[in-house]
Every structure is written in structure tokens, then in C-alpha cells.
Amino acid sequence: MKKILFIFIAILVFSSVAMAQRYTIKGKILDAISKEKLPYSSISLHYKTDTLGIYKGIIADTNGNFEIKNVKKRDMILKVSFVGYKPFRKEIGVLEFDKEKVLNLGDLFMELSGELAGVEITAKIERIIVDDDKLTMNVDEQLAATATSAFDLLKRVPGVFIDKDDNLTLNGKSGVLFQYNGRDLRMEYKSVVDLLKSMTPDQVERFEVLSNPGVRYDAEGTAGIINIKIKKNQNYGINGSVWGRASYQTMLNYYGSMSLSYVDDKWTTSLGFSPMKWGSRGTSRDERYTAKGVG
Q1: Residues 120-166: tens digit of each pLDDT
Q2: To which H or E segment does residue 63 belong?
Q3: Using only C-alpha atoms, what is the Rg of the chain?
Q4: Residue 261 burial (CB < 10 Å; 0-12/13-18/19+)?
Q5: Environment class of residue 230 by beta-carbon count within 10 Å: exposed (0-12), middle (13-18) or buried (19+)?
Q6: In contact, 104 and 26? CB cutoff 8 Å
Q7: Domain locations in the chain as residue ranges
Q8: What is the torsional sign of CA 151, 155, 157, 163?
Q9: What is the distance between the alpha carbons of residues 237 and 295, in angstroms, rounded to a whole number?
Q10: Quick check: 48 and 26 in contact, CB under 8 A?
Q11: How far apart are CA 97 and CA 95, in angstroms?
């Protein structure tokens, strides 16, 4: 009996140690036809049981190489995105981690999307410019045509990862400061999301990402800065959104939120309002309204 108990405990200890080990996943992102490297591709790692949540995120280097460190031994999904290409997805089974501490996936090939299939690869690569610690994604007509809003464009920026609830991380870190034409947007993140969702893609000139914003912002706990460069005289004035939900059984219940923002050459101001009255359960109906005006 003692021998069986000892073996059982040993198995538990061994399993715990094995699961506690950390691994490295690496590879290289290439164009499927030309075999050209795809620098600054966005790579995200997800638990297979939660593909909408992001476990880790990273961007490839100038040669398309990436290395994700400190990875748990779990069934994973690797996703890769690059402007103008179809999303890439690869399953990584838990047993693959038993082979090596460093799991080398080798060359991963991405295919052009139908939307931009006629555009030269060199033209797409020029959309992404890296200068020291600043990464710039320029928005041209072809790229704008593939998005539904400025927020949709933001999802294409290398290193930016947005989950199913619109939560954003930059290279795996939260606490990003947004700027609007170089001015700090001192508003709640949800208000920034509402602002970007109210803007059309062709209003954006470029996104500028600073991963190391400097001592001033380090003291505030800022993980990085995303500057939204808007075309001249675009989206100035009042922008906002209203959301609400109501139900009625024996009494009226409701809750909702409203956000407004005002932007001009000197000011960026936001206002939020969230009324709520909730008592008993009943049949409910969701309604969402978005409003945009220029003042």
C-alpha cells in the first residue's frame, strides 16, 4: 500500500514539474509565393480552449523572425496577421512540447488576401516603417478599403492585439496612452474606442507606435504610445455613441451609457454618462445607436 502511495505521489510531483516548465516557440514569417520575409508581422498565442483571448503577443523582427518565450505547456493556437494577407493559424499540441525546450516551427507561409492581391509586395511592406523605437503604419486607399472603421484599422497595426471585448495590449502589455495628432488623449479607453469606431478608415493618415515613450511616461506606468494621425480637418467637432438596454415586467428597468468627445486643433475633450435602474428580471431588448456630428 505504501509503495502504491509513493508511486502515486511521485507521478503527481513529476506531472506538476513538467507542467510548470516553460518553453520557447520560434519561427519565420514568409510570403507563400515569393518567399520574401514579412517583417513586423503580428504573432499571437492563444489557449486552444479560448482562441478569442490572447495568451501572449509579439511582432516579428525585420527578417520576419519571431521568438515567444516563457510559454506554458498547453494546447495552443498560433495566429499571424500581416497587412494585405490572409490570417494564418497553426495548432500546437501539448505533446509537441515534449520534444524540445525550444519548439522551432520553421518557415510559416502567408497568402495574399483577395482584397489586395493585385498590389505589389514591396508596396505593402512600405506601409510599415520602423525608425528606432517608433513604428509607423501608413494608411493608403487599398488598406482603408479593407476596413470598416478607424478602430478596425487599429487592429491591423503590428504589435497591437485586441480581444473579443475590445481590450487592447501593445506587445503583450496593457496601459497604452493614445494620442490624437500628437496630443495626449486624456480620456477613458472606452471613449477612445467609441471615437475610433465613429471614424471612417479614410480619415486616418497613419498610426505611430512608440514602444519606449521615455522617462516622463514610464513614471505614469505607460506601456507605450499610439498616436493616431488624422488627415487635416478630418473628424474635428463632436463625436459620440449611445448604448442602452431596457426590459419591463412589473417595472421598467434600464441601463446604458453615452460618451461624447470634442476635437479641434487645440482641444480634445470627452464626457461620459451612464444611467441605470434595475430591479426585477424580465424580457430584454438590446439597442445600440451611434451618432456623429461636426461642430
Answers
A1: 444 444 678 888 778 899 998 888 888 899 999 999 998 899 988 89
A2: none
A3: 23
A4: buried
A5: middle
A6: yes
A7: 22-110, 168-295
A8: positive
A9: 4
A10: no
A11: 5
CA nearest to 115, candidates 137, 78, 141: 141
Predicted structure pTM score: 0.63
Residue 6, SS3? helix
* Residues 194-211: b if buried by 16+ CB within 10 A, e if exposed: bbbbbbebbbbbbbbbbe
Could you give the CA distance from residue 219 to residue 105 in angstroms, rounded to a whole number? Answer: 38
| Residue 270 bridge partners (DSSP) | 261
Per DSSP, the three-state class of 278 is coil
Fold category of 22-110 in CATH: Immunoglobulin-like (2.60.40)
Please give the Cα distance from 28 to 173 (Å, whole number): 23
Contact 27, 105 (CB under 8 A): yes
d(CA 255, CA 276) in angstroms, rounded, equals 4
Which DSSP string do the residues of 107-158 spell out, in sequence order? EEEEPBPGGGTTS-HHHHHTTEEEETTEEEEE--HHHHHT-SSHHHHHTTST
H or E stretch covering 182: none
The three cell numbers of residue 213 are 515613450
Q: pLDDT, tens digit, for every residue of 229-247?
A: 998 765 555 555 555 556 6
d(CA 27, CA 208): 26
- Distance from C-alpha of 5 to C-alpha of 192, rounded to nearest angstrom: 58
* C-alpha cell belonging to residue 49: 480552449
